[in-house]
């Protein structure tokens, strides 16, 4: 039987420990009995937890790779750019809990239908928004100011896209998590050069970069950047 304990540093994150000592990360399931992407459910002391799969979620991969700053917390409002079918967004929903809220921006109508029908319909703290994250003015009236922005989009100029949203929605002193996909930005450049370019954009737009985590072996040519909006 796996035991579950709260993470000593990150609110809303839990660690599961099985008999051989292997540690996995999990979140407290806001919708007991329901899975989002086939993840394992663990029951412990009358509560249900969802195992956070690092091969399906870059946030889980970053945690396993030693992430030291997780700005998303219980009660936070989060703007999630590139929510897709809700794999990671649903875990963010678990983390912020009923006191928080997740605004989920997704561009694909087909993917949005799956996000709504499989995830948002069962979670009152998630708002699906069908929109292009490159045009935050299009959904300006649907999103309030947020504590954090999580960005995972397969677009060129990922840092610029995020910064444009931050200018409109992110509180001063708020935080961002940017999953940089080097091959989506420029396949002709080395990933390390792409990461440096994106970090430079963030710095120019008023962010103080605090941490950069390489996500191999879970995601090739990806990093997770954590930064604070200092203006």
Give the topology, please.
Layout: E1 3-6, E2 14-17, E3 23-28, E4 41-44, E5 47-51, H1 58-64, E6 77-81, H2 87-96, E7 101-106, H3 109-118, E8 126-130, E9 146-151, H4 158-169, E10 170-181, H5 182-185, H6 191-204, E11 207-214, E12 222-229
Parallel strand pairs: 6-7, 6-9, 7-8, 9-10
Antiparallel strand pairs: 1-2, 2-3, 3-5, 4-5, 10-12, 11-12
Helix pairs in contact: 4-6
Task: Please provide a written account of the structure.
- The chain is α/β, with parallel strands linked by helices and 231 residues long.
- The longest helix is centred in the last third of the chain and has 14 residues.
- It is globular.
- The termini are far apart.
- The protein folds into 2 domains: 50 residues, Phosphorylase Kinase, domain 1; 169 residues, 3-Layer(aba) Sandwich (Rossmann fold).
- The protein has a 7-stranded mixed beta sheet with strand order 8-7-6-9-10-12-11, sandwiched between helices. Strands 1-2-3-5-4 form a 5-stranded antiparallel beta sheet.
- Helix 4 packs parallel to helix 6.
- It contains 6 helices and 12 strands.
């Amino acid at each position: 039987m796996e035991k579950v304990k709260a993470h000593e540093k990150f609110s809303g994150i839990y660690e599961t420990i099985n008999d051989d000592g292997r540690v996995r990360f999990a979140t407290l399931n806001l919708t007991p009995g329901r899975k989002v992407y086939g993840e394992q459910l663990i029951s412990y002391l009358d509560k249900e937890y969802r195992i956070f799969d690092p091969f399906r979620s870059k946030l889980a991969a970053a945690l396993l790779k030693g992430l030291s700053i997780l700005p998303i917390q219980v009660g936070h409002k989060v703007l999630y750019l590139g929510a897709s079918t809700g794999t990671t967004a649903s875990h963010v929903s678990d983390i912020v809990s009923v006191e928080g809220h997740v605004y989920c921006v997704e561009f694909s109508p087909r993917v949005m239908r799956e996000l709504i029908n499989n995830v948002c319909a069962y979670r009152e703290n998630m708002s699906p928004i069908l929109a292009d994250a490159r045009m935050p003015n299009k959904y300006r009236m649907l999103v309030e100011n947020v504590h954090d922005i999580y960005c995972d989009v397969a677009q060129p100029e990922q840092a610029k896209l995020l910064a444009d949203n931050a200018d409109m929605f992110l509180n001063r002193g708020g935080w961002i998590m940017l999953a940089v996909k080097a091959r989506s930005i420029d396949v002709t450049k080395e990933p390390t050069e792409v990461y440096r370019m994106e970090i430079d954009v963030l710095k120019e737009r008023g962010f103080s970069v605090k941490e950069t985590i390489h996500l191999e072996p879970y995601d090739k040519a990806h990093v997770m950047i954590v930064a604070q909006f200092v203006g």
